[in-house]
Amino acid sequence: MHFFLDIDDKKIILRHKSTVVEQSGEFLDRSLRQVPRSRVTVALIFNVKREAMQEQTGSGLSPSSFELPSSLLPQINSNASPASVIPSQQVNDLYAEWDTMETIQAIWSALEVLHNVVMIEADAAAFEKLRVSQPDFAFNMAEGLYGPSREAQIPAILEMLQIPYLGSDPLTLAVCLDKARAKEILSYHKIPTAPFAVVRSMDDFEDARVRFPAMVKPLHEGSSKGIFNSCVVRTPDQLLNEVQSILTSYGQPALVEEYLPGREFTVAILGNGKKTRILPIVEIRFDALPPGVNPIYSYEAKWVWDTADNPLEIFDCPANLEPGLHAEIERTCLDAYRVLSCRDWARIDVRLDRRGVPNILEVNPLPGILPKPEDNSCFPKAARAAGMSYQQLIQTVLEIAFERCGLATSFAEGPSNESSRVGKDHALPVILEREPNA
After folding, report:
1. Does any domain span residue 352?
2. By CB atoms within 10 Å of each CB, which of 90, 167, 380, 414 scores lowest?
3. Cα atoms found within 13 Å of the Cα of residue 399, Cβ hemisphere only
């Protein structure tokens, strides 16, 4: 059973199949709750990449021939001041954290097998759409766009509305996106992480005491945004240039870390408490990068050189590790997962220092999960190595979250055993953004 919910300035419209019923918000709340349910209703909350939408809308397709309508495109302020414009070398990383329509469709397809799914874009109307639809549970994939707490915005709304949801709480999401705060917590708990300094303005530059070579990155970004090949610096002049670039281009502080020269790994984690488990570890093979570049998993390595059409053989999964190092990496990641209060799932990046000790690079409690093997997305890659299909990964983490919220038993007793398989022509249900006035 699918619902299409339109919200404009004057009315809220509930669309059920071909019928459109206009009601006040209060009546609509009651009407939605009274619709018979045979399965649990899960809200899939997402941000869709603007570039992917532009490519599809520019191909001559009609709105009915693709899953997400053009009204879901993020709105860009055409009157933005020059200071807020991203420089040309970094334009393409603005939406790097957001998901493609292909990923959103794949997650929806996995959820739809067992549950009713409503689609909610994480825009300014998300609060009202969630308040009206009142789903049983939310599968949150929204990265947000603005501010250092952007990943925490949707979970905070869900908590206000008392809607249980997948993943870590707002505090953990905000702390992990502030790399310095996360490193401070890790250091307090004696979990290895590279020595670092934060440069908030050029007035702080003289106080940045870090050994060369050093690594410079934006303080509040993910998906390798702002981490380019040039971010490995070996001289004071290079450090100055990179710090200035981040302060100017991203409008946020620069994190300067001691460069770690060892092997790099990424570790996918599922579960809570004593049931937490680690999937097969992924190693990043820098010998697969173009000759002469720095051995880091940069923006170029992730999004430019490694493409679905021409994937790099950059990963080994499971990683070839001797037992002692394997155990040490697992122990370090589980400790980080615990002290940062991660829930349900996370991906943790690790690199060895000059002594071979695993150091935490960063913790991502909202991991990317691109569906196709050629996309080289690390969490699904680890799941496949553990014998899990993409659909099984999505359903497994959802059940983990159900159990944490105490919902597994009540949901199991409520819905019938009705099954619903997604066919090739099955339309993706969407809760629409505000429509233009006619």
Report:
1. yes
2. 414
3. 11
Pair (152, 248) in one structural domain = no
Which CATH number belongs to the domain containing residue 212 in this structure? 3.30.1490.20
d(CA 14, CA 20): 6
- Type of residue at 15: R
What pLDDT digit, counting tens, does each position of 271-314 carry? 999 999 999 999 999 888 888 888 888 777 776 776 667 777 88
Diameter of the chain measured on Cα atoms: 67
> What residues make up the domain containing 15?
4-167+392-413
User: Cβ(87)–Cβ(215) under 8 Å?
Assistant: no
Q: How buried is 119 (Cβ within 10 angstroms: 0-12 exposed, 13-18 middle, 19+ buried)?
A: buried
> The whole model's pTM is what?
0.77
Give the closest residue to 217 by CA, choosing from 204, 207, 232: 232
- How confident is the model over 367-377, as pLDDT tens digits? 999 999 888 89
φ and ψ of 46, to 5 deg: -150, 165
Residue 326 lies in a domain: yes
Q: Is residue 82 part of a domain?
A: yes
Residues 315 and 387 in one domain: yes
Q: How far apart are CA 361 and CA 333, in angstroms?
A: 10
Q: What backbone phi and psi angles, to 5 degrees, belong to 144?
A: 75, 175
Query: DSSP letters along 8-34, please?
Result: -SS-EEEEETTEEEEE-HHHHHHHHHH
